[in-house]
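Amino Acid Chain and Its Fold in Token Form
===========================================
Structure side: the spatial fold of the chain, written down as a series of whole-number tokens.
Position: the record begins directly beneath this header, with no further notes in between.
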Amino acid sequence: MQPQDVAPRPAPSATAPAVDVEQAEAALVEHYPRLVRLAYLVLPPGLGRSRRVLTAHALTQRALPRSRTETPVIPSQAAGRETDPGYACLRLRVLRTALEAGLPLRRRAWPRRSQLPPLLPQVWGLKLFPRSGGADELALDQRLSALSGPGRAAYALRGLEKLPDGDVRRTLAAAGVTDVDAALGEADTVPGPYTLLDSSEFDPCSLVARPTDLMRRRQHGKAALVAGAALVVCGALLGLPGGGWGPDGAAAPPYARNPAAQAALDPGRLIKIAPSAWRTSPRTDFSVWPARGDLTGDRALLRRALAVWARPGEAVRVSATPGTATGGPAGPPQLLYAGNVDDARVVILYDGLRLVRYAEPRKGTAGAALDLARADGARRAEAGAVVLGRGDGNVRYLTAPWVTEAAERDLTEPGSGAMDLPLTDGVTSPLASPVQREGACTSWNVLQLTDGSTTRLMTDLGELVPARLTTGRPGSAREASGAKELRTWAPYACSLGAVRGQGVRAVNAWEFAEQELPEEGGEAQWVCTRAETWRGRGARVLAQFRTPGGRYGAVAAKAGDVPACGARDPHVLAGVLWKSEEGDWYLLAAGSRDTESVRATGGIDASSDGNLLTARAERGAQAELKGTLEDGRTVGGLR
């Protein structure tokens, strides 16, 4: 996207309110994090994340006017800023200078101050960048990087500032944007919820620090002591690492040299497992996968992958599932794959705890990506496939050596057959990814793997390792590939989207109760889905309710980090308000089959023996549920 021109600053109108320096300073102190976030979003991604952070802070700090200033008041939709002309003044000044920073340098013309590296703030010896977000934040950042500066500004004013389009137009025009319609048109091309802008991915005030090149910095310091104070500055500037592709590719310069670290970066020491080792090994997990792909002998590619894993440079897109350490390997890792996948060269590595995917374009020197995911304790059932690449709404997998067949099926259509996926050296042909689809959920494609006499289902949730799908009572769950199990999952398949990007290891669907509806409404189904994570924490539980003939289930209750519906506590209790065809409202509650009695208190006072409760209710009524188990213990309603 070519940058749009920014017009000269318009003169303030005669009726514009004046802002005192003290008033602007108070607004700057109060709203500093939001103004810095706005500047970070608008600045060009080509600056690199570390320089964008420092430039965003510099532009925000320089936005404080030196004297009484007139400015147009354009409302903000967040509480506390609606009528503050000081905030409007600062926002406009930040927006204008951030747009100027994205303009190309012109020959025979002095650069503007915002186009130069910031003098203050300065950080010596560290690189600072925001914390990495999830897959959704990464996709949004990539889409924003394709927009022009005015396009990013329009999107940020809409999403971050909650401005209507009329105020967005006036703000952009006041900031000097010449083609406001084009900027709004670009912003319209970016899908996704605006709430992603509040993520730590776009927060330049919540930072991660990494060291710069320690060895080279030490050498420059010695030379600077000999040359004098003037050469200290020159040496620091001339010693900055370049942006080209050397032996380490997109990696940052090395900052630690010891035998273990050097061995971990030596492609000649990579562990490569024999193709038939898994047949006799007592373990069947990622540790017995052989090295596959057409580039396993490309030492230069493997060295770049190892170096970027140990020291990702500023231009590398790094993502990690929650709870996954992002540091380099402690020793030589295992090579699972190195080869060409669509338009990229891909390397998959495993260090016993984590799976790492390194990808770089086949041509060019930009766009390297590093993805990390926990895989410790994986068993044969979970170590069936790894994502090789995504593109055009599809996903391609590398399957385990014991997988004999692969297929694609729609989880929402249990009666439809599975479509075979050809395997080439363990690599599947592309299949539609449910997490890359836009719009309402009407289908959910999953990967079906056959391992001897066992068939398993796995689903893409936007991470390296697909999640395993099971059904049944916790502690005795079974694979979700049989006809009955497919019918259990079908109404609840779209609810899997609620746990994307959460480091999910497996998701189980348990039909814990069936309940007759009042007024001969038929039999409803109660199902509890529990998503377990690789890190052990962060499990997500949904209690879902489906009426007879309903295509999809409805979430009646949800909770996180609770033992309910899991192997440690295979019990659950949930309730929902239901309206009959006659217009009457009822409280319907159900517990697992070992629930001896259920009682509702609060807005509804009712009780019943057994695991089911049906009571008349008023619309909008709220009640507290409590169940008594057969062993005398009590269980509360899932909230």
